[in-house]
Amino acid sequence: MVGEQQVVDAAAAPRVPVPPARPLLRTVGDNLMETFFPDDPFRAVAREGAGGRGRRAVAALRYVLPCLEWLPSYSLGALRSDLVAGVTVASLAVPQGISYAKLADLPPIVGLYSSFVPALVYAAMGSSRELAVGTMAVGSLLFAAMLGREAPPGENPELYVRLAFTATFFAGTFQAALGVLRLGFVVDMLSHAAIVGFMGGAATVVCLQQLKGILGLRHFTTATDVVAVVRSVVSQSHEWRWQSVVLGCVFLAFLLITRYFSKKRPKFFWLSAAAPLASVVAGSFLVYFIHGENHGIQVIGYLKKGINPPSARDLLLSSSHTMVALKTGIITGIIGLAEGIAVGRSFAMLKNYHVDGNKEMIAFGLMNIVGSCTSCYLTAGPFSRSAVNYNAGCKTPMSNAVMAVAVMLTLLFLTPLFHYTPLVVLSAIIMSAMLGVIDYQAVGRLWKVDKFDFCVCVGAYLGVVFGNIEIGLSIAVGISILRILLFVARPKTTVLGKMPNSTNFRRTDQYTAAQAVPGLLVLRIDSPIYFANAGYLRERITRWINHEEDRIKAESLESLKCVVLDMSAVASIDMSGTNMLEDLKNNLDRRSIQIALANPGSEIMRKLDKSNVLRLIGDEWIFLTVGEACDHAQRNCKTGTDAVQCTVAV
Amino acid sequence: MVGEQQVVDAAAAPRVPVPPARPLLRTVGDNLMETFFPDDPFRAVAREGAGGRGRRAVAALRYVLPCLEWLPSYSLGALRSDLVAGVTVASLAVPQGISYAKLADLPPIVGLYSSFVPALVYAAMGSSRELAVGTMAVGSLLFAAMLGREAPPGENPELYVRLAFTATFFAGTFQAALGVLRLGFVVDMLSHAAIVGFMGGAATVVCLQQLKGILGLRHFTTATDVVAVVRSVVSQSHEWRWQSVVLGCVFLAFLLITRYFSKKRPKFFWLSAAAPLASVVAGSFLVYFIHGENHGIQVIGYLKKGINPPSARDLLLSSSHTMVALKTGIITGIIGLAEGIAVGRSFAMLKNYHVDGNKEMIAFGLMNIVGSCTSCYLTAGPFSRSAVNYNAGCKTPMSNAVMAVAVMLTLLFLTPLFHYTPLVVLSAIIMSAMLGVIDYQAVGRLWKVDKFDFCVCVGAYLGVVFGNIEIGLSIAVGISILRILLFVARPKTTVLGKMPNSTNFRRTDQYTAAQAVPGLLVLRIDSPIYFANAGYLRERITRWINHEEDRIKAESLESLKCVVLDMSAVASIDMSGTNMLEDLKNNLDRRSIQIALANPGSEIMRKLDKSNVLRLIGDEWIFLTVGEACDHAQRNCKTGTDAVQCTVAV
Q1: Which of A21, A235, B233, B280 is the most interior residue, by most CB within 10 Å?
Q2: What parts of the sequence cross the membrane (chains A, B) (predicted)?
Q3: If residue A597 lies in a helix (H) or strand (E), which one and from where to where?
């Protein structure tokens, strides 16, 4: 709202119309649509409107099962690419699955189960083409931390596993519910900075946990904070196994180097993808031949053959532990969504197509619900895997199906091969993956662009590293929400001035050339006016006026006749807002200062009209542009003393 | 950002400058000042800068103790008005104090105590001249409901009283803390609609509770919801005392009529002010002479003489009940602030002076802390009392001191007179007061102006009436917060069009005259762009573009060459926001559509510059006005296909 065309006679200028009243239901409907269906998801269905019910049904089905969109036109070329990608991802998924399962204190086999069924579900329902389904390190750690406290896996492993399935079930239900209720925006409430900090902290903690495997320790603290871990490591220095340390460092170095290479040359992506499997194979052979288990190198041990057994019966939906499972499920569910959707969207952005957040939530939800009934634990779309999938040139979610089949074959025939796989290798795999998650550059950018975001990020990081994951998460969420409230409670108000030889009005604090119009004060309000900021805005505007009058006194200028409020940035207003304007008007009347509004939107006009504030201010003091308002005020306002009886030349 | 002057050559137009980098500390400092000291409280102190340390100290002291501002210039005339007002308020305060104490299940005498000490504290520290300190009905009811559950006053009255003092202490500490930490805006998070609904519901519940007194029942449900109350009333129909019913109705009628009169003719304010005391006196005499206590009319009974005994020792700061007291204190504290500050501000608005919210919080806090150590329970600035004070023509907070002295005299000499005061009169007093609190007109206005606010209001009301006070409160707060989040997560984006024979750009949905510029899409974003809405905005803008292209295809118009984002309403942007713009730019490049920004603020320019998005978009695509942006785009963009290599005529 700034920058106007000189209008010789304000009366001739187009007035701001009060929009005609609209049927209540229609307004409500429109608002609900805008709020919950901003992405217009049923466009495709609506398009088929002409095609009759049958085609509409097909379109709807296609909306629910995106695979129906790409399957019909699925080509052999696409299949080839997806095969390559799927197999590559599988070679990463198998060792990662086992490692993360260990991280979650679950039987290694569960990790493999979790890369099978959920991937199939996502292949059918997912709308991202690059996302590769699998378990996530942070989620696994959260399971170990939150559920382990309730049912130490050491004491009662069976209960612990059941709790894990239950938590997964709740996570899935929660995710699906968010999607169905179109509450996708809840995920947006976690700021990017908070996520970076939280993820970084979690990765650090996970790395520290791996010291257990690398050093070959048998006992280890269950606490996750750096202090406890370091103490527990140092206190057991006599227990360190040099063999395991050597092995670990060798493999870690190998993995990091391969990752470095494939980062350098994207066409070497397969290096980093195959490296984990390679190290698992190498490690297993090594241990097998040198009988490493006798030299204090722990191995995975027996893995039973066969695909996922059903686990629906194991869910503890009504027991004393249910609440813990629920809490764990909700927290991990949110984190899974936050990461998964972010990953999906960033790749979609690269290939220039759109990922529907709410659809993804439903897909994730069903994926986990089905998973919880087939011996899987929490799955999402981890970045590392999806990146490999993308670099391997996947074309459709079919790559997930391919991976699932590959994992299934592993489950059916190859599990015995993992008997001699040393845990230290798994630790190395996790560590190298986690070191990739810590995003230094992002932190640097945050510092450069937005110091506050930087603090949020660091706060979350420190909370995780020195407190525990929940503390870090609540710090992140807390600061994010507080920031939103501050944004809302402290909107910007700026003084506008006239730009030389033009009629544009611009912020005086931004453009030194902008000159105040004598006798007038032009203020712009940069936010909707409603209960959360009405009080503040009243005070702030009054303060602007006081300052202006002080200045006028000090420089003995022409006294203040009129305050022009530029309303074009005010998107909406509520009862408290209209009351605020009413108070302001009365207040200024007493100080015999006229008030004028420039370019209020239609919602504003409607509300002002209904609340009679429009009549109070006077229709003739509402203008299309700031320029007209100023001209009019200068022509029709006597100096201060009797400005109230401003006469209007209409 | 709308309305521009035709500029013949875009190159000649004033460019949008990138503000020079500012020292970090200074930026942080300014932001903190704007956020926490928007009302510039230290202005007075700063003014004395020249006057040296001494005078600055005086000014600071004056800031802490507002009474130092008006005492020096306190005139005899003011004293006379304050005497009248104070005595009038006292005549209301005494019966009301006793009644509300009964409502809170506390000994009646505590109600009198609570009108003495806190009033003195506020007289010294309060910055509102009309606010009259006293106990509040809703707060009293909350005490009875929340503390009564923990320690039924019937079983252990002594513990209950101590809990009440403790809760008051916590309320005060919480209020003071909010004030000292300048977190006044927390109170604003309760929307006006929510408060109206909640207060109305509470008033209804309080009235229902009075049926006990009116019907002369001895046993009554502790539940507050309408169902339980009605059941308990009906089930005891045989216990009803006609004498008490008659007495109650007579007095209630008397009180309502007087209130009606003084509403009609403000100069009869003393009628409504004196009526309660009058009915107490009349009731007492009546009961005394007809020995009403023998006819089943319950009376207050013995009140011991003397002023507030110290109660600091009674505070339960570390017991099993502390948590309940803390919870009660925080909730009632917030409600007390919400009502008190609202009352203070509305009267200040009438007399055209300013009430400092944070200062008031500190005053309220100390008032309650001191009160809790002198046998008082929660006090605030109830509307009914303050209105009487205002109508009685009070000039300064001195009227509170006068009232306090009057109450003190009552405590010292007149308490025996209340021995025969019938409870039914107290019930009548409470009822008439509460019927005044239910604000029908406000609800009507809400329905007329804002349907959503109306729903919030009704929701809170029903929650209180059919659930309980906490439920109602959490509904109110919950909806308010949800609404804020929605406001934030779903900002407005509107399409702008060129107004005929002017260069103003206005919303096409508001002004039918506004015409789209061929080949261009002008969008205005009406909110800061940050993590909470960046994702949504990306989707919404993309959707606008898609729709536009559909339209173009349908009507086979000139293809879309350039999207102009009007940024003038974007007050700030964060990392997620800049990332969003970056994504959008890349995305549009792929669709070979140019992007241009119009009138971004200095914060935006700084952030865009630091995050290199400015370089990505290109300095030559940032414009001072939408008009310039459009002219430039039309001149320099080839049609769609190769818009990316737009040449710039600079």
Answers
A1: B280
A2: 131-148, 160-183, 189-208, 240-261, 268-290, 324-350, 362-380, 400-418, 423-443, 471-489
A3: strand A594-598
